[in-house]
Amino acid sequence: MKQKGENKFIKWARFLKQQQNKKLLYCLERASPIEVANFLEQQPIESILRILAMLPITRQGELFALFKDSALQIAFYEQLSKGTFAKLFSCMPSDLRVDFYQRLPSKEQTHLLPYLSRKVREDVLMLNSYSPDTAGGIMHTDFATVLNFMNIEEALAKIREDAPTQKMLYYIYVVNEHMKLVGFIPLEQLVLCTPQTKISSILDTNFVYATVDEDQEVVARKIEQYNLAVIPILNQENQIVGIVSYDDAIEIIRAEQVEDMDKFMGIDSEEDDPDYLKISSVQHLKKRVKWAVGVFMSGIVSHYFTHTKFSSQDFIPYLFYVGMIADTGGNVGSQAASVVLQALNRGQVTLSDWIKIIAKELKVSILLASILFFLVYVKIYIMPSEHRTLQMTFIIALSIVLQVICSTIIGASLPLAAKYFNGDPAVAASPAINTIVELVGLLIYYAAIMVISWLYPINQVNTS
Predict the structure, then answer these.
(1) pLDDT for 45-72, tens place per residue?
(2) Which of 198, 269, 361, 437 could join 329 via S-S bond, C-beta 3.0 to 4.6 A?
(3) pTM of the full predicted structure?
């Protein structure tokens, strides 16, 4: 009787587990892939293996590709046999497939290759041969081609053979007998034509393309500029070897903006940095210490200049306004650099427009300086001070005006100068601008005091 009771309990427990699995499978199949991937990344590796095993292999490949944690992907790979993983690997998008393959140690790459199908193996080896920062490194092979001498019926059969995913069927690319791209046909036009219509009669030969060695950011800007869903990537023989989609371009532009912002704020970032909370404090220190030490050293120079030039009794009242002048310059300089950098990244201006850029920033700085000139007078006369004089007020206001104009020109010029010397405009970082304009501001302030005092030699300190 006891054995019979235990068997019933085991059957009941197994039934409950099956019902739970069915409910879980129901939710996983209907939720968006990114939500499922985020959910799985929070689970232990054993649970991930168990849950994914319940799903079709195509869904497994899609979810595995969406994992943001590269260490988790490697750990998952190590838990499976090469044959089992090869099936999942073949279901990943081609560009993400290559990204993961490049992260594998060379020994593991060699072990995995024999388990891959011929097409997947060719795609991996081809895409892996290009630099990750070029169009060849980010393109994928999820596209369909037809020959220019085919008719519609033959073309549709060829498309079924290529079997691109549904979301990549924006355009059908037309090639000649040498596989050189000669044009494209929108999918809806292909479907609406009669079966015997010749491809050459409906071919659009006016197309935008990129080459495999073009920088990925240039490719992303082409997609944005021409409002494309996808752009074909050609090799040196003008043969189509891949495509880059609008989604890829968004990711590139977003990564570029994050990278530029890091540089602008003086942070050395790396492409494969893990999440913020997963980076150790020492790693954060290494990313920030260069600019911090540089700004500190320049601060020593500034303070040395302040102590040597403003140590006289007559200059002591002016010391209270050194910080205001330096901070104002750093603020407007960073604003100018940010605006120019943004315009360069969006393709709104080029180096040939440098005169127009400087002229526009000069106008803005003069208008801003006029407002601050008036506010300096208001500020000094509202704040009670026994050292306040008309001469002192004019010197401070004049220094603010000159500091705003100079800082704006410096902030606008640094990104342009970096671009001219084939550097990254984002290296004109906020700490660099603050450092430069602080030194310039001190020189302007000291020069204004000396010149005005020389022209109008009256007592600068009113002790009454």
Answers:
(1) 888 888 888 888 888 888 898 888 888 8
(2) 437
(3) 0.51
**Contact present, 85 and 77 (Cβ < 8 Å):** yes
For residues 231 and 113, give the distance between their C-alpha atoms in angstroms, rounded to a whole number: 29
Beginning with the edge strand found earlier in the chain, give each strand of the sheet holding 145-147 in spatial order.
145-147, 171-175, 181-186
CA 101 to CA 89: how far, in whole Å? Answer: 9
Alpha carbon distances (Å) from 379 to 374, 394, 416 = 9, 12, 35
Three-state SS at 244: strand
Give the ranges where 310-429 is alpha helix by DSSP (H): 322-345, 354-382, 390-420
3-class SS shares of the chain: helix, strand, coil, % to 5: 70, 10, 25
Least confidently predicted of 267-276, 361-370, 382-391 = 267-276
- Name the burial class of residue 393, with classes exposed (0-12), middle (13-18) and buried (19+) by CB atoms within 10 angstroms of its CB: middle
Q: Is the distance from CB of 229 to CB of 246 less than 8 angstroms?
A: yes
Residue 291 binned pLDDT confidence (cut-offs 50, 70, 90): low
- Distance of alpha carbon 131 from alpha carbon 392, whole angstroms: 60
pLDDT (tens digit per residue) in 68-110? 888 888 888 988 888 888 888 888 887 788 888 888 887 888 7
The helix or strand, by DSSP H or E, that contains position 154, with its residue range, turns out to be: helix 152-162
List alpha helices for 31-117, DSSP H. 33-41, 45-52, 57-66, 70-79, 82-90, 94-103, 106-112
Structure tokens at 360: 């526009």
Q: What is the DSSP letter of 116?
A: S
- The CA-atom distances, in angstroms, between 452 and each of 220, 316, 371, 460 are 54, 16, 22, 10
Q: Within 10 Å of residue 155's Cβ, how many Cβ atoms?
A: 24
* All domains in the chain, ordered by first residue: 31-129 (1.25.60), 145-245 (3.10.580.10), 276-455 (1.10.357.20)
